[in-house]
C-alpha cells in the first residue's frame, strides 16, 4: 500500500486482503503511539485505570462496583482498589443502591468531573500542538478522515 489514497476494493468472505491488513496494522500502530505520546506528555496525576474508571462512571453511572469492573475488564478486587483511591481523592461518591440495601453505586463527584475536564483540556492542547506542526493539507486530510475514524468506534451488534 502506498501512502497516497487507497482505492476501494471488495473484501471477500475469505477475509481481509493484504492491503486491508497493512492498513489495519498501520492504523493500530499510529493510534496506539499517538495515545501513548499523549499519555506520556500529559503527565496526569491520575493513573490510566483510575482515569478510565472515571470516564466510565461519567458515561454510564451510577454503577455498582461489579458493573464498573465488568466494563473496565478487571476483577472486582482490582476495581475495589481503584475505587478506594478515587474515593480517597474525592473524585467519586458512593451512594446506597436503591435496589439492594447491601450494595452501593458509584457516581462522579464535582471534583471528579472537574479533574476529567482538566485532563481532557490538557490532552486536547497537546494534540493541538502536534496538529500545528502539520501543513494545511495534512490537517484537511485528518478532518476528512474523522468521520471514518469515528465510525470505527461503533461496536458490531
Question: Any overview of this molecule?
Answer:
By secondary structure, this protein is mainly α. It has helices spanning about 20-40, 50-60, 65-70, 75-90, 110-130, 135-150, and strands at about 65, 90-95, 100-110. It has a three-stranded antiparallel sheet. The chain has six helices and three strands. The radius of gyration is 20 Å and the shape is globular. The chain starts with 17 loop residues before the first helix and ends in a 6-residue tail after the last helix. Mean pLDDT is about 85; it is low at about 1-10. It is about 60% helix and about 10% strand. α2 crosses α4 (about 75-90) and α3 (about 65-70) packs across α4.
Briefly summarize what is shown.
With 157 residues, the protein is mainly alpha-helical. Helix content is 62%, strand content 11%.
Features:
disordered N terminus, 157 residues, mainly alpha
SSE inventory with pairings:
Elements: H1 18-42, H2 48-60, E1 63-64, H3 65-72, H4 76-88, E2 92-97, E3 100-108, H5 110-132, H6 136-151
Antiparallel strand pairs: 1-3, 2-3
Helix pairs in contact: 1-5, 2-4, 3-4
The main sheet orders its strands as 1-3-2
What integer value in Å does the Rg equal? 20 Å
Could you list the spans in which at least 5 consecutive residues all have pLDDT below 50?
1-9
Tally of alpha and pi helices: 6
How would you spell out the order of helices and strands?
Answer: HHEHHEEHH
Distance between the termini: 30 Å
Helix amount:
55-70%
Largest sheet: 3 strands, antiparallel
Mean pLDDT over the full residue set: 87
Strand content: 5-15%
Give the structural class: mainly alpha
Number of strands: 3
Shape: globular
Amino acid at each position: 500500500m502506498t501512502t497516497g489514497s487507497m482505492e476501494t476494493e471488495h473484501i471477500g468472505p475469505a477475509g481481509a486482503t493484504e492491503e486491508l491488513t497493512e492498513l489495519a496494522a498501520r492504523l493500530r500502530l499510529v493510534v496506539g503511539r499517538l495515545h501513548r505520546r499523549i499519555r506520556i506528555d500529559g503527565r496526569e496525576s491520575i493513573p490510566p485505570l483510575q482515569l478510565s474508571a472515571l470516564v466510565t462512571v461519567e458515561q454510564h453511572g451510577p454503577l455498582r462496583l461489579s458493573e464498573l469492573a465488568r466494563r473496565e475488564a478487571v476483577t472486582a478486587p482490582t476495581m475495589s482498589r481503584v475505587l478506594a483511591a478515587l474515593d480517597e481523592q474525592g473524585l467519586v461518591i458512593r451512594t446506597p443502591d436503591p435496589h439492594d440495601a447491601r450494595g452501593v453505586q458509584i457516581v462522579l463527584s464535582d471534583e471528579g468531573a472537574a479533574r476529567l475536564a482538566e485532563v481532557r483540556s490538557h490532552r486536547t492542547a497537546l494534540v493541538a500542538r502536534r496538529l500545528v506542526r502539520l501543513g494545511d493539507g495534512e490537517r484537511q486530510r485528518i478532518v476528512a478522515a474523522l468521520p471514518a475514524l469515528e465510525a470505527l468506534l461503533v461496536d458490531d451488534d
